[in-house]
C-alpha cells in the first residue's frame, strides 16, 4: 500500500490498459479518478470495485479528451474531491487504419486530439498542484509506434511519436520540482482498440483475420505473445515509487522485443 494518501487520475480507464492502471493504483491504496466512455452500469461497477480494492476513494468523470475545458474541469474535480492529484496517467487513445491518401481528415483530427493533445492539456492542468506539493508522477501511454512506424497508421504513429517528445520536454521543465515524467510504450495488448482495428487492417492489406492476428500482430513481437494490461500497469507502479525518482524523460518499451528487432 505504498500509495496510501496519494491520488491519481487515469484518462481512458473504462477498459483495457487504463483500467489495469487504475486497479493497480487502487490496490496500492491510491484514490483514483477514472475516465472514459462505455456502458454506465459497467463503469459504476468498475468504480465500486476500485473502492473495495483499497478502502480508498474512486470517482468517475466523463470528460471528453477532445475538450480542453472538460480536461481542466476533470482535474479540478479530482483536486476538490481528493485534495490534490499526485499521479496523472494520460492513457485515452483511439486508432484508425487507412492509407494516407484515403485517411479521413476527421479521423486524423480525432486521433491527434485524443492521443496527443489531451496529454498536453492534462499536463497543463496537473503540473501547478504538483509543483506546489513538490512531488508528482506523470505517465504517458505511447506505443511501440512512438519508435517505429507501421503502414496505414499515420495519425497514430504521429501522435505516439509526439507523446514521446512531449514527455521528454515536460520532464526537463519540471525536473527540479520533484516531478518525474515518463512514457510507457507497449507493444500489442489484446484490448478493444486492437480488436477494432482488425477489419480495417484486413481491408487495407488484403489479409484474412487469421493473417492479421498471426502475420501482423503477433509477428511483430519476437515473444509471439500479446503484452497484458497487468504487465503494463506493473511498470507504471514502479515509476510511481519514490525509488524511481531518478527516472525521468524515459520512454519504456514493453513490447515483447518488437522495437529491439
Ligand atoms: P481501449 O479501447 O481498451 O481503451 C481506450 C480508452 O480510451 C477507453 O476507456 C475509452 O473509453 C477511452 N476514450 C476513447 N476516446 C475518448 C475520449 N474522447 N475521451 C475520453 N476517453 C476516451 O484501448 P487500450 O488498448 O487499453 O488503449 C489505451 C492506451 O494504450 C491508448 O493510448 C493506446 O493507444 C495505448 N496502446 C495500446 C496498445 C494495444 O495494443 N492495445 C499498444 C500500445 C499503446
TrEMBL record:
Query: What organism is recorded for this protein?
Result: Sphingomonas xinjiangensis
The UniProt keyword set, sorted, is: Oxidoreductase
User: What Pfam families does UniProt report for this protein, alphabetically?
Assistant: adh_short_C2
Record-level Gene Ontology MF annotations: 3-hydroxybutyrate dehydrogenase activity
Among the record's GO biological process terms, what is one?
A: monocarboxylic acid metabolic process
What is this protein identified as? 3-hydroxybutyrate dehydrogenase
Q: What is the E.C. number? A: 1.1.1.30
Q: What class of enzyme is it?
A: oxidoreductase
InterPro entries per record? 3-OHbutyrate_DH (IPR011294), NAD(P)-bd_dom_sf (IPR036291), Sc_DH/Rdtase_CS (IPR020904), SDR (IPR050259), SDR_fam (IPR002347)
Q: Which Gene3D superfamilies match?
A: NAD(P)-binding Rossmann-like Domain (3.40.50.720)
UniProt similarity note:
Belongs to the short-chain dehydrogenases/reductases (SDR) family.
Amino acid at each position: 500500500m505504498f500509495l496510501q494518501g496519494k491520488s491519481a487520475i487515469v484518462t481512458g480507464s473504462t477498459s483495457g490498459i487504463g483500467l489495469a492502471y487504475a486497479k493497480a493504483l487502487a490496490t496500492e491504496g491510491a484514490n483514483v479518478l477514472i475516465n472514459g466512455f462505455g456502458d454506465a452500469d459497467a463503469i459504476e461497477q468498475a468504480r465500486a470495485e476500485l473502492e473495495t480494492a483499497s478502502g480508498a476513494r474512486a470517482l468517475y468523470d466523463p470528460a471528453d479528451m477532445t475538450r480542453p475545458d472538460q480536461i481542466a474541469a476533470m482535474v479540478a474535480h479530482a483536486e476538490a474531491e481528493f485534495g490534490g492529484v499526485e499521479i496523472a496517467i494520460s492513457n485515452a487513445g483511439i486508432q484508425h487504419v487507412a492509407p494516407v491518401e484515403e485517411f479521413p481528415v476527421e479521423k486524423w483530427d480525432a486521433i491527434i486530439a485524443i492521443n496527443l493533445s489531451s496529454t498536453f492539456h492534462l499536463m497543463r492542468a496537473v503540473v501547478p498542484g504538483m509543483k506546489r506539493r513538490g512531488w508528482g508522477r506523470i505517465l504517458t501511454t505511447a506505443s511501440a509506434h512512438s519508435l517505429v512506424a507501421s503502414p496505414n497508421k499515420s495519425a497514430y504513429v504521429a501522435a505516439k511519436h509526439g507523446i514521446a517528445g512531449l514527455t521528454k520536454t515536460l520532464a526537463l521543465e519540471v525536473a527540479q520540482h520533484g516531478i518525474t515524467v515518463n512514457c510507457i510504450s507497449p507493444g500489442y495488448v489484446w484490448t478493444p482498440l486492437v480488436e477494432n482495428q482488425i477489419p480495417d487492417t484486413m481491408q487495407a492489406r488484403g489479409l484474412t483475420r487469421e493473417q492479421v492476428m498471426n502475420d501482423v500482430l503477433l509477428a511483430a513481437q519476437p515473444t509471439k505473445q500479446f503484452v497484458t494490461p497487468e504487465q503494463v500497469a506493473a511498470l507504471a507502479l514502479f515509476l510511481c515509487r519514490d525509488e524511481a525518482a531518478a527516472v525521468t524523460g524515459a520512454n519504456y518499451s514493453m513490447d515483447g522485443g518488437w522495437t529491439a528487432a
